[in-house]
Amino acid sequence: MSALSLVLRAGLRDLARNRWLLAYAVALGLITESLFFFGGTGDQVVLSLLNATLLLVPLVALVFGLMHVYASREFIELLLAQPLPRRAVFSGLYLGLALPLAAAFLAGLGVPLAIHATRGGAPWVALGFLALAGVALTAAFAGIAMAIALRTDDRLRGMAIALGAWFGLAVGYDAAVLAMVSAFGDWPLERPLLVLMLGNPVDVARVLVLTALDASALLGYTGALFRKVFGSALGPTIAVAALMLWTVVPFVIARRRFLRRDF
Amino acid sequence: MIALDGIRKAYGTRSVLAGVSLGLVPGRVTGLVGPNGSGKTTLIKLILGLARLDAGRILLDGAAIDDDGRYRRRIGYAPQAPRFPENLSVGEVFAMLRALRPDDASDESLLQDFGLRAEWDTAVGALSGGWRQKVSLACAFLFTPDVLILDEPTAGLDPIAAGVFKQAVRHARDAGRTVLITSHILSELEELADDVAFLSEGQLRFAGPVATLLERTGMRRLEPAIAALLGGLRVTQGAGAAESPSIAHPRRA
User: Fold this and answer.
1) Would strands B75-78 and B147-151 be described as parallel, antiparallel, or unpaired?
2) Per DSSP, what are the bridge partners of residue B207?
3) Which pLDDT belongs to residue B241?
4) B67 and A86 in contact by Cβ < 8 A?
5) Number of domains observed in the structure of chain A
6) Fewest C-beta atoms under 10 Å: which of B25, B81, B129, B174?
7) How close A53 comes to chain B (CA, Å)?
8) Distance from B166 to chain A by nearest Cα, in Å?
9) B84 and A9 in contact by Cβ < 8 A?
10) Among the ranges given (A3-7, B25-29, B208-212), the one the predictor scored with the smallest mean pLDDT
11) Residues contacting residue A187 through CB under 8 Å, at least 6 positions apart
12) Do B79 and A84 touch (CB under 8 A)?
């Protein structure tokens, strides 16, 4: 068995018994179940779950990821003191964090959805996109958390940076875009706005799921522009590609820091 | 043998090690001492490749250590503050280490002597600091490495476990292995160390046999001798170390 898979296996075993991860899955399950319980139909539940996913998944991945890396600092040193390549240690640690988080997300959403979907009329494409968006956001923000934790040893500062990143991307970004649109309304903003949208994984995830639902009103300015430019066929493909890129870029940045830094 | 040749390390603008040269010889226990922040842990991390050199060389049996990391097969390391994944059991930690080094023969004697089998299924997170230290030390000794690097190894150990540990170090020395120990408990080092290397403000102020340090400082015990060095007594190098960065080792001379 390779060093990567052994480090990954240790991480999976550790986090599979982590009570916070279990609480995360249960909380997502309760949210999903309560949405069905209070009379939501398929599309309404997906829309509500999308909002919960866009806020919760980045926050949990950032905070949990950051705390996990800080708590694993001495274990990382022990692994690096073994005859193992740093690349394998990093990949094992990253996957050992991202995979359990993604599994908790899928379990939390998947179990209630599987029960209720058998009643018929489930928007399968939108649900598939929601699952994909949640997993991609988990991977992206786990990578961002690792990059932050490897950048600063000060836990308080790291947490402040992580919460700032979450607030900026999940909450403040749309407000900033709207402010830009109102300030430069006379200028041709289509291209810059599309670039800005693709520069935020939360926005990309939102647009990806909404392209599969009849909810144009919820697309917002950038989402409507995205649909207008790329159409309903090419749009999801571009959104998926952008999300994939968002999972890779933080991983590469964090890996680069891991390979170069002193422990 | 491990030879440190003019190693320098700075974190930002703060110089931690400023041209340290030192030799660690097989069959000898070297106590690395110095005040807090003197560079002891950084020196250990440089040997292990956890931190990178700014200048100088570290040689293991004449070959410079590199990023490849395979040389670490020959080193056992117990960190200052051992932590393992909280939800793994003691048995799973050892199983993982064995799986990571399948070609290396393992020696479970310290694991047995510490009584770790009794805690085999206990989650590491449920262990006290002393038990975690036992796990860490047993991991360091597990693959009978040529070189043992032990950072504050007796912190948190009860007297019985500390006795078991000291016996294991003596066995390792008698078997011709190189042992480097840092500790603030100088009475323990006095029991174990053949040589002492004293770091202060990133510079090696003394390197040589314990007996030479005692002779130079006119003290009978290691603790006042180190205190004398800390107090500014100008003792530079031990016998034989002036010509060479290696610690003198009269038994092999």
Assistant:
1) parallel
2) B197
3) 41
4) yes
5) 1
6) B174
7) 27
8) 22
9) no
10) A3-7
11) none
12) no
Considering only CB atoms, B48 lies closest to which of A71, A72, A81, namely A81
A81·B79 Cβ contact <8 A: yes
pTM for the structure as a whole: 0.85
Instruction: Please judge whether B72 and A73 are an interchain contact, meaning their C-beta atoms are less than 8 angstroms apart.
Output: no
- Top residue of A5, A75, A84, A154 to mutate, by most chain B CBs within 10 Å, is A75
Report ipTM for this prediction. 0.82
Q: What is the pLDDT of residues A163-216, one digit of tens each?
A: 999 999 988 888 888 888 788 877 777 788 888 888 899 999 998 888 887 766
Q: Which two tokens stand for residue B59?
A: 């040689």
Distance in angstroms (rounded) separating the CA atoms of residues A126 and A124? 5
- Residue boundaries of the structural domains of chain B: 2-252
- Tell me, which fold does domain B2-252 have in CATH? Rossmann fold (3.40.50)
Please report the DSSP string for A125-172 in residue order. Answer: HHHHHHHHHHHHHHHHHHHHHHHHHHH---HHHHHHHHHHHHIIIIII
Chain A CB contacts of B99 below 8 Å: 1, 6
Query: Where residue B236 falls among pLDDT bands split at 50, 70, 90?
Result: very low
Sequential DSSP letters for A94-117: HHHHHHHHHHHHHHHHHHHHHHHH
At B187-225, the pLDDT tens digits run 888 889 999 999 988 899 999 999 999 888 888 888 888
CA distance B205 to chain A (A): 25
Q: CA of A1 to nearest chain B CA: how many angstroms apart?
A: 8
Best residue of A18, A77, A84, A152 to probe chain B, by most B CBs closer than 10 Å: A77
**What sections of chain A are H helices per DSSP?**
3-16, 19-37, 42-71, 73-80, 86-117, 124-151, 155-166, 173-183, 190-198, 201-210, 220-260
Q: Note the helical H segments in chain B.
A: 40-48, 90-100, 109-113, 129-141, 159-174, 186-192, 210-217, 222-230
Residue B78, sorted as left (phi over 0), alpha (psi -120 to 50) or beta, turns out to be beta
Q: What are residue B147's DSSP bridge partners?
A: B75, B178
Q: Answer yes or no: do B72 and A81 touch at CB < 8 A.
A: yes
Extract the tokens encoding A204.
Answer: 């990309």
Chain B closest-CA separation from residue A29 CA (Å): 24
Whose structure tokens read 């006379």?
A: A186
A71 and B86 in contact by Cβ < 8 A? Answer: yes
Name the residue range of residue A26's domain.
3-260
- Rounded-to-integer distance, Cα B23 and Cα B25, Å: 6
Query: Please, are residues A120 and A40 in contact by the beta-carbon 8 Å criterion?
Result: no
CA distance A107 to chain B (A): 21
Amino acid residing at A218: L
Closest by Cβ to A74, choosing from B73, B83, B88: B83
Nearest CA in chain A to B143: A82
On the question of pLDDT at A105 being above 50, the answer is yes
Q: What is the mean pLDDT of chain B?
A: 87
Residue B242 has pLDDT above 60, yes or no: no
